[in-house]
Amino acid sequence: MAVPKFRITCALCRKPIPLSQDVHALDREWKRRFPALPGVLACERCATRTHWRCELPTGGFVDGHIPASVPDGADFDAWSHLLTPGTHKALVIKYPRSGLLQGAESYLRHVEARPYASPQFVARFRAVLTEWEAGADLDPFQEATF
Ligand SMILES: [Zn+2]
């Protein structure tokens, strides 16, 4: 079965992420600052050219700041809130709910139907696809756990 071609729409600029680029994953602080984000997957340009500072000049963090998952002291700007980037396929597998919300449904259905995938792996994707089909409000930040 041929692997379906898919294009992820960037959560920030809403343009298709070029296949030649890695995809960046955003954390919940991005969602707090950009409430309309449909998912966590973003293009290189948006992920690396969006700027903010987490700390106030007087010390401490801005109101409502959601701590980044970085070592102490490394949480100071937008880049602190970027998760590990990766290939289009890898990030859709890691964040399947975002994948569905951002244009990768055909690929996720292909993954679910792979004859050689482990039963646990298939079951996780089937659960996400079932949520999607039921019209559930998907949490795009929820990672698939294997
Ligand atoms: Zn973008």
Short description:
With 146 residues, the protein is an all-alpha fold.
Task: Output the keywords.
mainly alpha, binds zinc ion
Protein model, in words:
The chain has one domain. It has 6 helices and 2 strands. It is an all-alpha fold and 146 residues long. The chain is elongated and about 55 Å long. The model has no long low-confidence stretch (mean pLDDT 92). The chain binds zinc ion. The site of zinc ion has 8 residues, from helix 2.
Q: Looking across the biggest beta sheet, what order are the strands in?
A: 1-2
Range of strand content: under 5%
| C-alpha-based Rg, rounded | 16 Å
Number of helices: 6
- Secondary-structure-based class equals mainly alpha
Number of domains: 1
List low-pLDDT spans: none
Present the secondary structure layout.
Blueprint (H helix, E strand, L loop, with lengths): L23 E2 L2 H6 L7 E2 L1 H6 L38 H7 L1 H6 L3 H9 L5 H15 L13
Antiparallel strand pairs: 1-2
Helix pairs in contact: 5-6
